[in-house]
Design a protein that fits this description.
Length: 341
């Protein structure tokens, strides 16, 4: 028996026997059941979602779990079924703790082609002066697109600019079998959480040595980076600090990926400087850049600056994207970029 629902961006890994896609389907199934069948079914749902081992080990935001359980209980009661005691117990336990989130971080688990990806993320829009501590729409889009087109990345040496918390890169490593994958970002706090997320997903553990370094000391940064180079699924994984304003990237690259970096003209200028430098190092290097088109003027500026930089858009995919029913639909773009011949 299978029921299916996307209740929020936190796509919990569902058990093999239960996957929820809509509460409408949930109600249709539940209304046909007698008491014993209903209790067994609710137990399957409960242990496949809020009480799943993954959700217990890497807990989502308390407010999300509370809302999910409240909605689930309301749906069960709406079908004139008796609610499973374990559901009530967890829900009332959360209510008794109050509304405050004990930590500024939580975990979100995203269903992927070959399993799931669990990320430590902030519960706030801005944390430590950056918006890079949560996962944005273009990262989801790029991760899904890469996973569906895995042959484009197999055996390639891939550099990601502005990797953030790692969703796109982890999806590529897990689903596409590249030769190497290098995550890069500039913000110290983002890099440290990125290390944890790589450890969670590639080594099944939280990293307790996320690394401390002096952001002004190049040797210290290089030493820290080397400690976080590992091999997983035949892919060499690197995590490096890269400042677009002052750094260049010297290692060999076949493909460049970037998501949600087109949001500010000043950032775009620095991004294109690094992108052009990497793409022009050897023949055949190309880039996939995914963007959420929030401001048409900014996106037009990006395209114009691309042309001025001697970079050419060889293909463009646009689509509407909705990460969950609770979020607004957004317009996304994926550009395939090469140096002008």
């Amino acid at each position: 028996m299978e029921v299916s629902t996307h209740v929020s961006t936190e796509r919990h890994y569902m058990g093999e026997r239960v996957s929820l896609k809509s509460f409408q389907n949930f109600q249709k199934i539940l209304t046909t059941m007698d008491y014993d069948e209903s209790q067994v079914f609710q137990q399957q749902v409960f242990y496949g979602t809020a009480n799943h081992p993954l959700a217990l080990k890497y807990p989502p935001a308390k407010t999300y779990v509370q809302l999910f359980l409240k909605t689930l209980i309301n749906q069960i009661e709406g079908c004139n079924q008796e609610v499973l005691d374990d559901l009530y117990s967890m829900y009332t336990g959360l209510l008794s703790q109050g509304n405050s989130q004990t930590s500024e971080f939580c975990y979100k688990t995203y269903k992927q082609k070959s399993g799931s990806i669990t990320l430590k993320e902030t519960c706030k829009l801005i944390c430590d002066g950056t918006t890079g501590m949560c996962t944005w729409e273009a990262s989801h889009f790029l991760a899904e697109w890469c996973s569906k087109n895995a042959s484009n990345f197999q055996g390639k040496k891939i550099l990601e600019l502005g990797a953030g918390l790692g969703l796109t890169g982890l999806a590529v490593v897990m689903n596409c079998k590249p030769a190497s994958y290098t995550f890069t970002d500039v913000h110290d706090s983002v890099l440290k959480v990125l290390v944890e997320n790589v450890a969670i997903n590639l080594f099944n553990e939280v990293s307790h040595s996320s690394g401390k370094y002096d952001a002004d000391d190049r040797k210290s940064i290089e030493s820290w980076s080397r400690r976080h180079e590992s091999k997983d699924h035949d892919t060499m994984v690197h995590i490096k600090k890269l400042d677009w304003e002052s750094d260049t990237y010297e290692s060999d690259v076949d493909l460049v990926l970037a998501a949600d970096v087109v949001y500010d003209p000043d950032v775009i200028i620095h991004f294109l400087k690094v992108l052009k430098d990497v793409l022009c190092k050897k023949p055949g290097v190309a880039a996939y850049v995914a963007s959420t088109m929030r401001n048409p003027d900014t996106y037009t500026f990006f395209k114009n600056e691309l042309e001025c930089s001697g970079l050419v858009i060889t293909s463009e995919v646009q689509q509407q994207y909705q990460n969950s029913p609770s979020q607004q639909e957004v317009s996304l773009s994926l550009l395939y970029i090469k140096p002008e011949i």
